[in-house]
Amino acid sequence: MRFWQKIYIGTLILFVIAFDIGAYGLVSYSYDFLLQRETDSAFREHAIILSSAESNLETAEKLYPDAGYDKERLTAIIKPLADYYELQGIYLALFLEDKEVFSNIEFVEENLLTLASIENTNMMQQKQGDARYLYVASQMPNHAQIKFLYARDITALDGYKKDIGQVFVYISTAVCLVLGVCIFILLKYLTIPIERINQTANAIAKGAYDKRVPINSKDELGEMGASFNLMANSIEENVSILVTSAQDKQQFIDNLTHEMRTPLTSILGFAEYLQNAKAAEEDRIKAALHL
Amino acid sequence: MVHILIVEDEKSINDLIAMNLKLVGYDCTQVYHSDDAIHATEHIRPDLILLDVMIPGTDGFSLMEHKAFRGIPVIFVTAKDRLDDKVRGLKLGADDYIVKPFESTELLARIEAVLRRINPNRCFTMDHVEVYLDEHVVKLRGVEVELTNREFELLAVLIQNRNSALSRERLLDLAWGYDYFGDTRTVDMHIAKLRKKLSLENRIKTVYKIGYRLEVPR
Which helix (H) or strand (E) segment is B152 a member of? Predict the structure, then answer.
């Protein structure tokens, strides 16, 4: 695998992992944050509804002191409140001596009621089928026999989590593509010097000792190119010294052999002549003189 | 008469070549400078030029390209024994290339070969014998004489090196070939047959302690 391909794939993988971890953290933080806000407002509304229900109850007690608590009376007090809040996804229930007096809550959480007391207001969230509810239960502060249950529909929060997750996948894919193209171009641009050094090295290896790397940056690759050129300079110098010395040597040998051969040819030739030739006396003397 | 121009700056070599050529019966002109070589070539129009490469003035290779040399066979005689020099010389149109040091028999053989190429139907005559080297025909008083191949080769070698003695070993090498491992007495037998068949008893002389020599007047 090429160097730039390694960097390319490595960067992309690292980016996707980092981006997804960040996205997951962000989504779960914002989910917790929203849940906390829902819980806070649930407690607040629970307290408001509870106090308004209780004040209505007290007003009724003042008007009819002997009436006591019956189902119809309590229903009459809670029903307008329940109808009003139902539109906002809030459901209410009222229990007298642990018996249901009124409820528009689909699933009643009985465990909450057993725990409910004046001192502690109980809260829990519960998934019911596709829907999710936030329950708050308590006793009425001045009427301990009456218990009040508040349920808030927070299904939208789940939807929010799912939606934002999807958005993150889209964004991550899109960013990944854009980043891929950008990193590709960047890497190609940044590895041009390496490519050049490689080409020059190949050319020099094939005998083009005068080839040099063009340097147009001052980074590590520029320095490497400069060092490479220095090396190429010294190689070229040494090679030319070698070539010159080889030529000199050849020249010397040529001259030497020429200098040696001429007298050698002459001596051998005249010796042979004297030995073999049927020549006139003056020729023989001439030959002998050359020896 | 064959006329040969010797271009060689070294006087001893020049003399050596000239004396050897004279022995065989060629006419020679000796020059020592490239300018003289051009001058001599233009005036004498020799049959063959023996040319050294390293001579004063223009060097031998460049001299080859001079127009005076056109149409005249050239043999380079030089100490430059490198392959590229030989190839260059032959590519320039030289007929042969001889590297120093050389032996006179080789020089004569090569000159003979070049001359034969130019003028194929040359005939060598001595006394009553006519030798047609190319056609392998020998006539004695106008009548063709039957010679074996080996006898003819031996005769040709003797003619090529006429007036110069050749040892029996040398004759074996030249006429029989280097790969022939025979007795030197084979040479004696063939010489005896040649003498008898062509009645050359007075021409083919035995040289004491050396070998044989074909003697012809120059």
Answer: helix B149-160
Is residue A120 pLDDT above 70, yes or no? no
State the Cα angle at A189 between A186 and A193, rounded to 5°.
140
Token digits of residue A176: 């990944």
Q: What residues of B are in contact with residue A269 (Cβ under 8 Å)?
A: 13, 16, 20, 101, 103-104
Cβ contact, residue pair A273, B19, below 8 Å: yes
Residues ≥6 apart with Cβ < 8 Å to A232: A200, A204, A209, A211, A212, A213
Count A/B contacts: CB-CB distance under 8 Å. 79
Burial class from Cβ neighbours inside 10 Å (0-12, 13-18, 19+) for residue B37 reads buried
pLDDT at A136 over 90: no
Three-state SS string over B5-72 comes to EEECCCHHHHHHHHHHHHHHCCEEEEECCHHHHHHHHHHHCCCEEEECCCCCCCCHHHHCCCHHHCCC
DSSP-based three-state secondary structure for A245: helix
ipTM of the complex: 0.73
Whether A276 and B213 lie within 8 Å, measured CB to CB? yes
Q: What's the one-letter identity of residue A126?
A: Q
Write out pLDDT tens, residues A152-194: 888 888 888 888 888 888 988 898 899 899 999 998 888 888 8
Nearest CA in chain A to B210: A276
- Residue-wise pLDDT for A44-100, tens only, equals 988 888 888 888 888 888 887 776 677 777 888 888 888 888 888 888 888 887 778
Residues of A with CB under 8 A from a CB of B: 254, 257-258, 261-266, 268-270, 272-273, 275-279, 283, 286-287, 290
- Weakest mean pLDDT among A118-122, A192-196, A282-286, B104-108: A118-122
In whole angstroms, give the CA distance from residue B127 to residue B203. Answer: 9
